[in-house]
């Protein structure tokens, strides 16, 4: 979509897709209705996603709020009340002003991160993920990338109790990992606690198929096997540098040559396992471990006694987050609505509902029987969902070769739909400026100040 915007109508765009368009945006059907099984919620400040939805004429649904509890494996350490002022009093009693301070802390990070939209609107691009991050938040952002969210929040004066009981459960739900993830992705996760979250009616994956259709790109079903630089002589002119892309299709191995190649899937043996042939210097392998998260959709009744509620009538939670306890076999569970649902007439969690469970491993029958007193249907999706975060983070390069670009390195900063859109626009701008030799639009420092004076 962004390449078409920059390069215009005359270029030919091919999308090589080994599975289905949308990647980690995916729905699962359960009893005739579709539910998000991958990337599920979008933040109100995700401007690219907002623009896509508007541009494509898609409808949005607000993410429904439900009462939340935080469970530590033995008891609930925090229970939200249906009365918001009681919840606030509970928060103040247990955590002091930590919660309010967290909102301000996250907002400050988001404010700086939002600068990317102005830079991209003014056609500025960055040649590395570190430079992009530094241009937004300076050394503060670099520090966040190089320390854990635990360290970052302790330094900012948050209590260990608050970090363990409030911050950690949110991160476990979002990224399947604890407070050892980097500070930046931790802040992105905490931004999801804010109100106003939304999703696309019919499934977030509709954005991907819609953008491909809108960009008039040709989708070729195939798995890329290798990329190799080629030089073609041109009569009466300089030789042309191209990339030979070889891919596997249902009818066998085939390939084509391209001027510019953008890799938009995580590189790695278990993901996009691409061989880079005859590059000089060779393209290095960079460690890129991804974390397994299992999504299990269950239509059934929660076994409230598992969570210490002997009386099911007293159990009102629609979302349960968990602290970091090795005995726990789930990260979170919550009631979900179908992707086509407008959010009205929603069933109470007590009645038989569809629950989404996140766990590190596929749940056994015994574990399902512990969690649910009865269930009708179960659907499971295993994901290599997001990077295994372990600061200090080293981001893979964006530029792998002259006109060979890699998008997913920015996921090591934070993995989210909007981050992928930002990486995509940056790569499209970078490819365009490098193709046309516009070096003034790449890696400009102090853009924030420059653009201020322009206004």
Key descriptive features of the protein:
7-stranded mixed β-sheet; 20 strands; 26% strand; FAD/NAD(P)-binding domain; alpha+beta; 4-stranded mixed β-sheet
Quick rundown:
This protein is an alpha+beta fold.
Please describe what this structure looks like.
- With 455 residues, this protein is α+β, with helices and mostly antiparallel strands.
- It has a single domain, classed as 3-Layer(bba) Sandwich (FAD/NAD(P)-binding domain).
- It contains 13 helices and 20 strands.
- It has helices spanning 2-7, 47-56, 84-95, 98-113, 115-121, 129-146, 149-155, 160-175, 183-191, 205-214, 365-371, 417-436, 447-454, and strands at 14-17, 27-30, 33-36, 60-62, 68-71, 76-79, 198-200, 218-221, 223-234, 237-249, 252-258, 261-263, 275-276, 290-302, 319-322, 332-335, 353-359, 372-387, 399-401, 404-406.
- The strands form 6 sheets. It has a 7-stranded mixed sheet with strand order 6-5-15-16-17-14-18.
- A hairpin with a 2-residue loop joins strand 9 and strand 10 (237-249).
- The two termini are 28 Å apart.
- The model has no long low-confidence stretch (mean pLDDT 93).
- It is found in: Lysosome.
- Keywords: FAD, Flavoprotein, Glycoprotein, Lysosome, Oxidoreductase, Signal.
- InterPro entries: FAD/NAD-bd_sf, Prenylcys_lyase, Prenylcysteine_Oxase1.
- Residues 78-444 form the Prenylcysteine lyase domain.
- It catalyses: an S-polyprenyl-L-cysteine + O2 + H2O = a polyprenal + L-cysteine + H2O2; S-(2E,6E)-farnesyl-L-cysteine + O2 + H2O = (2E,6E)-farnesal + L-cysteine + H2O2; [(2E,6E,10E)-geranylgeranyl]-L-cysteine + O2 + H2O = (2E,6E,10E)-geranylgeranial + L-cysteine + H2O2.
